[in-house]
Every structure is written in C-alpha cells, then in structure tokens.
Amino acid sequence: MCGIVAYVGTRPAVPIVIEGLRRLEYRGYDSAGLAAPGKGALRVHKVKGRVDDLVERLPRRMAAQVAIGHTRWATHGEPSDRNAHPHTDTTGRIAVVHNGIIENAAELRAKLSAEGVELASDTDSEVLPHLIAAALADGSADLPVAVAAALTQVVGTYGIAVLDAESPDEVVVARNGSPIVLGVGNREMLAASDVGALVNYTRQVVHLEDGEIAVLRTGGYEARLDARITTREPATVDVDAAAYELGAYRHYMHKEILEQPEALSRALLGRIDDRFATAHLGGLELSPQESRDIDRIKIIGCGSAFYSGQLGAGLIEELARIPASAESAAEFRYRNPVIERRTLYVAVSQSGETYDTLAATQELRRRGGRVLGIVNVVGSALARECDGGIYLHAGPEVSVTSTKTFTATAVAFALLALHLGRVRDLSPADGRRIIEGLRALPEQVRQVLDDEPAIAELAGRYSSYAGAMFVGRVRGLPVAREGAQKLKEVSYLHAEAYPASELKHGPLALIGPDLPTVAVVPDDELFEKNLGTLAEIHARDGRILAVGHRDLSDVADDVVVVPRNEPELDPVLLSVPLQLLAYHSAVALGRDVDRPRNLAKSVTVE
Q: What is the C-alpha separation between 108 and 448, in angstroms, rounded?
C-alpha cells in the first residue's frame, strides 16, 4: 500500500495522476512513482521521498494520455528508489502498481529466480509484472486475460493497476481486499484507491468488488468477475472537492478537530424522532421485534474505531440494557469466536476499507452472524458487506489521525443505543433527556474548542516530558485510551492508558516526577473515587493534568474544564481537549502532524 491513481483519456495524463497522488498524501507514504507510455516503451520514474521529489525527476514534457501512479508505504523492503512502485518485468513491457500484501511472495520469487528472472527489488509486488509478462508470453490473448491468469497464482490482498507498452491505450485494474474505485468521466476513465483522488474530475464512481477485474479505455470500462461481465450504474459521490483542501489551516488534523461541531450536526441530521423520543435509523434494517430479540451486542474495530466501540458498548449497556462489549477486529478474526444466533455484531471503520475489520466481518457473515456497520465512507467495502448500518456523514477525514470521526462514531452509538433502548425499556423521559443532550453537543464542542489557546499552552509544557500516563474509569476509560492513542500517534511521546482502578495493581510503580498523568474525571457517580486516584498520584510526586467538569485545581496541577452534558454523553466532550493536547504537543515538538511516521490512514493490509 498506500495510494494508487490511474488515468485514461484525452487529456495529458501525468498532471492528473500527480494531482491525484497529492490528494492521497494524507494516507502516509515513503516513496512515489509513475509510469506512462513513451515511444514504443514505458517511461517509469520513481523515487524515495515525497510526490514533490518525484515531480523534480520527471521530464518537462510527458504527453501521454495514459498513466498509472503510486505512493508506497513500505511492507516488504525498506523505503528506497528500487523498492518504489511501479515495478516492471525484465523487458520493461509491463508496469504494475500494487496495494496489499502477497503472502506467497517468497515462493513466487524463488520460482521466478529459478526460471532465470533477475529480480530488481526486495518487494512482494515485483512478482506481479513478471507473472503477467509470463502469461502473455504463454499465449494469453490480451492484457486482461494475462492479468487474470497471473492473479490465480497469488495468495493475499491486492489492489493493482497495470500498464502494457503494447496496449498503450488501456489500463487494467483489479482488487481483492484492497480498494479500487473507478471514476467515470466524459471520454476519460480514472481509477484510485480512494475517492478523494477522483472528485476533482468526476462524481460518478464504481467500487470494484473483490475478485473483479476492469479494463479502462477512453470510451469507458468493462469489468469482469469470475469470467462474467458485470454491469453497475455509477453512484454519485456527494462530496465537494473543496472538502479535501487544507485551505487556511496549517494541518488537516487541526482543521478536522475544528470541524467537529458541524460534523456532529450532520451525524444527527434527520435522525431524531421527537414524537416517540427515539432515533430514526432507517439503514439498520432491524424490525422492532428483531431489536427486542437481541441478547448481546459485540463491537469490532481497530485503533480509534476500537476505542469508540468501547465507548459505544458502555452507551448500549446503559441506555438499552443489552450486554455489550468491544474487541479488536484484528484479534477477533483469529481466535475462532463463538457466533451466537441472537447476538448483533457491529463493525466500525472510518474508511470502510480497514482490512482486519473487513475480513472479520466477512467471516462473521460466512458463519451466519448479523453485522451492522458504522462507517464514514459511503459505498466502501465494509458498507457493502454489512447487513445494514449507520453512515457517519462526518465529511472527508484527511489526516492520518482520526478526530471528527471518533466523536461522530460516539454520536452514532448514542443514536443506536437510544433506538434500541426505546424499543425495550428506556422511558420516554430518558429518551427526551438523551435527545436534548445530543442536540446540545455541537455547541458544547464549540465551547471546548474556544479553550484551545489554554490547552496549547499546556501542551507546550507537557510535551517536554518523555511520555504520559492516561487514566479514567468506566465512561472515562475509552476517552483515556483514545487520548493516549492520539498523543503517541502524532507526538511520538510514549503514552499508555489504564483504568484508574488498576493503578495500584502495577502501573503505580511508574508514577513519579518525570511521568505526568492525564486524568479523565467526569462529574459522575465515580467522582469521589477518581479523587482518591489523584491523591495516590500526588502522594508519589506525580504531576496531574485533570480533564473534567469541575475546577480541580486543589487536587491537580493543571485543569481543563469542559461543559456538562448528560452523563452518558459526556465522553464526547471530554475527548476533544485530548485531541487538542496531542495536536499542540506534536506542533511544539516539530512533528509532521498529518504524516505520522510509520502510519497510514487506511490500513488495507494485516
């Protein structure tokens, strides 16, 4: 992985591919490259570094009307010019860009070497152009057939775009577990691993299914799945290209933190049913009887989606009184879980393409489980895979670090919990109480954001430490975990989160003057117990930054006070200061905020 862009049309292709790659830079990458037809041969340019470094290496004129490009996030082989994509076969006839992981690459590389092929990189991806070239040499009639033949030898995941010097007017793309989206234009076709690379040229898109292969030509495309021609009407993407622009902001992360009031308003739009004091969620595809028949809810996700799932599990148990828990999707799919008939499974992913979550969902459905999705990207693989679900409508999230989709996911879980609760035993009065709280959230988040200068000043001081401990209890624990995740992602400071009740069972040994503690202290039934934890930390000379609803300056060194909402919804507000703390810590340390080292936005490999 990480980013793929391809173009076939009547305009110069290279500038379009370069712009598409720039729009995918937010996904994280270490090298970039492109290939385009030249005079009887392919012209391939690639470099370790940024897209701007690639542009400096390009000839001034490349008049091709077909091109493929790639930004790479290293899996096999270190970041280098030779490991960058595109990769070619020995003759230079075939060029391939690839996202995903080829699991049997070692076996295929050994086979190719035994046949006399000189491999030029350390990557798994390089086997693809050699396999395709071999299929053409064996008499395959055309490039699509050769690509299909080559892919039968591959075990693993892929999203690929292929260019053939002898068929310079077409590009072949294919997917299996790694996204490829087609853009249908006026006498031009595009393909990309993310719709953000397409929206400047077309709003008409087609999402390839796993196993599908498509040929792109100026006049359109033809797709096949298991040798059958597939036909689908393009869907219209309701996203303005300007939503992907940085505008006057310094970083996408900062822009998206500040967009949260509007994102939460969109997440609520049209979903409040005042008459029955409930939530209207038409995408669930659950009848009232089916909702009442649920015995348990299990939530799966990775990273921030997992932590939002833990927050959601608490909301569901509190409001709907249904046993609920959250688990890492990456672990869930490998532990041979018991799939219960009356359990509802909820898969969470901002991109809808997170491979571990998608694979876990596919395994759940294979074994008869019913799965709902909570997803931000409309038409994504997870959205298509699930039986129903909730779109976040948070708008494009460009920064590698999730912020507005975390809070929007929390709101989606609150709506789901409200809906299920009102079908079961949640009273109309409590339903109205939660609705009032949900409606207050956007303005209250705006109030938290108004405190940014003070939080930035705190971040400047706390970033001088080597790390931080985050603690919280019950509703505060997922907030603490997400806060630690944010800090480590963008500042590279070591951060760990523990239940406040667990400190005395081991982690308290770490507390001292050199390790500050960020304590999440909501004004709830556990407030006094949280004060006891702060006393334990202070007794060991630990510095404390408390985030809560009261002025705790008598028990903490520094305090951030946020507005009160309903206790069940307070975690949404408590998480926002921790986003700002992480962001301004990273800025103070001079980090590349939108491109954290070693990370990618959409994790489409294991």
A: 55
User: Closest by alpha carbon to 179, among 99, 104, 124?
Assistant: 99
CB 100 within 8 A of CB 605: yes
DSSP assignment string, 319-341: HH---EEEEEHHHHTTS-----T
Residue with tokens 């080292």: 597
- Please check the confidence at residue 602 and state whether its pLDDT lies above 80: no
Side-chain-side CA neighbours of 490 within 13 Å: the count stands at: 30
In this structure, what token pair is assigned to residue 494? 């070591």
Within 259-417, strands assigned E span: 272-273, 278-279, 296-301, 324-328, 343-349, 370-375, 388-391
Instruction: From residue 268, give the alpha-carbon distance in Å to each of 384, 390, 408.
Output: 22, 11, 9
Q: Are 84 and 47 within 8 A, CB to CB?
A: yes
Rounded Cα distance between 57 and 51, Å, is 10
In this structure, what token pair is assigned to residue 72? 């790479």
Contact predicate 4/69, CB 8 Å: yes
CA distance 516 to 542: 6
- Alpha carbons 21 and 56: distance in angstroms, whole number: 15
Whether residue 585 contacts residue 487, with contact meaning beta carbons closer than 8 Å, is answered with yes
Quote the DSSP letter at residue 237.
P
- Residue 1 confidence (pLDDT) above 70: no
pTM summary value: 0.86
Kindly report the backbone phi and psi dihedral angles of residue 89, in degrees, each rounded to the nearest multiple of 5, phi listed first: -80, 180
The torsion angle over the Cα atoms of residues 228, 232, 234 and 238, rounded to 10 degrees, is -120
Pairing of strands 272-273, 278-279: antiparallel
Nearest 5°: the CA angle 190, 193, 197 is 55
Q: Which residue numbers are catalytic? A: 2, 601
Name 32's bridge partners: 47, 71
Place of tokens 């480590």: 488
- The answer to whether 218 and 10 are in contact (CB under 8 A) is yes
pLDDT classification of 236: cutoffs 50, 70, 90: confident
**CB burial of residue 42 (10 Å; 0-12, 13-18, 19+):** buried
Burial category of 255 from C-beta neighbours within 10 Å (exposed 0-12, middle 13-18, buried 19 and up): buried
> pLDDT tier at 597 (50, 70, 90 boundaries)?
confident
Give me the residues paired with residue 498 across strands.
Answer: 471
Tokens 């409200």 belong to residue: 418
Counting Cα atoms < 13 Å in the Cβ hemisphere of 106 gives 2
User: Which letter, b or e, does each residue of 586-602 get, where b requires 16 or more Cβ atoms within 10 Å of its Cβ?
Assistant: bbbbebebbbbeeebbb
Q: Any idea which residue has 């946020």 for tokens?
A: 562
Query: Could you identify the residue written with the tokens 């809070």?
Result: 407
